[in-house]
Amino acid sequence: MPTKIRLQRRGKRGQPFYHIVIADGRAPRDGKFIEKIGTYNPLARPADIDIDFNKAITWLNKGAEPTDTVKAILSYKGILYKSHLLKGVQKGAMTEEQAEIKFQAWLQEKEAKISGKKKEYELSVKDVRKKLHENEIKLNEAKAQAVAKKRAEVAAAQQAAAAPAPVPAPVAIADPAPAPAPVAIADPAPAEEAPAVPAEPVQAKEPKQE
User: Fold this and answer.
1) What is the CB-side half-sphere exposure of residue 194 using CA atoms within 13 A?
2) Using CA atoms, how far apart are residues 12 and 33, in angstroms rounded to an integer?
3) Separation of alpha carbons 167 and 34, rounded Å
4) At a CB cut-off of 8 Å and minimum separation 6, what does 43 contact?
5) Could you give the angle at which helices 79-91 and 68-76 cross, rounded to 10 degrees?
6) 105 in a domain, yes or no?
7) Residue 63, by phi and psi: left (phi above 0), alpha (psi -120 to 50) or beta?
8) What is the pLDDT of residues 102-111, one digit of tens each?
């Protein structure tokens, strides 16, 4: 089988990181390889690709076949386009200077697109952070209002419990009935005076003679 240019996975679970390697087509994906020519980090925005330009072209000229993912990476970095221009130079369709001018023009256009995507991504990140911040402020305000309401209810309940019991309203009492007028009582008839009884004279006793 022909030589392959493919990815070899590294990194922890959920955090993939790849090496771009030259390997025998019969070797397992993460097995032995002939040469490492770059790295690929798909988690970066935009993806971070570090590849040896000249080595990649050399292996392409030797007939190495890139996998679909690596082919997209090589196209993104302009390696496939440069390889195509060099083949045109070998066939005499253009000079090396013309090929280099075309490649530099393509490279500038590509860098402008990448820069624009970076700015769009940064703006989108700022917009997302701004919305998250606004939502957090609203949530905090709602929590503060709920806490203030709860405290007001507790304070009102405590104040009601501490207040003295209300004094009942006085009951109207009817005026007492007027006392009856005193009845005139006639003076009693004077009692008849008893007739005076003359006192009997006391007789003096004579002394006994011996």
Assistant:
1) 3
2) 21
3) 101
4) 15, 16, 17
5) 80
6) no
7) left
8) 999 998 988 8
CA 31/CA 13 separation, integer angstroms? 18
pLDDT band at 55 (very low <50, low <70, confident <90, very high): very high
Classify residue 29 by its DSSP letter. T
Looking at residue 21, which CATH number applies to its domain?
Answer: 3.30.1320.10
Number of residues written out for the chain: 210
At 56-77, the pLDDT tens digits run 999 998 889 999 999 999 999 9
d(CA 87, CA 65): 16
Strand order in the sheet with 48-51: 48-51, 35-41, 17-24, 3-10, 65-66
150 in a domain, yes or no? Answer: no
Q: If 0-12 CB within 10 Å is exposed, 13-18 middle and 19+ buried, where does residue 7 land?
A: buried
What's the pTM value of the predicted model, to 2 decimals?
0.56
- Tell me if 49 is assigned to some domain: yes
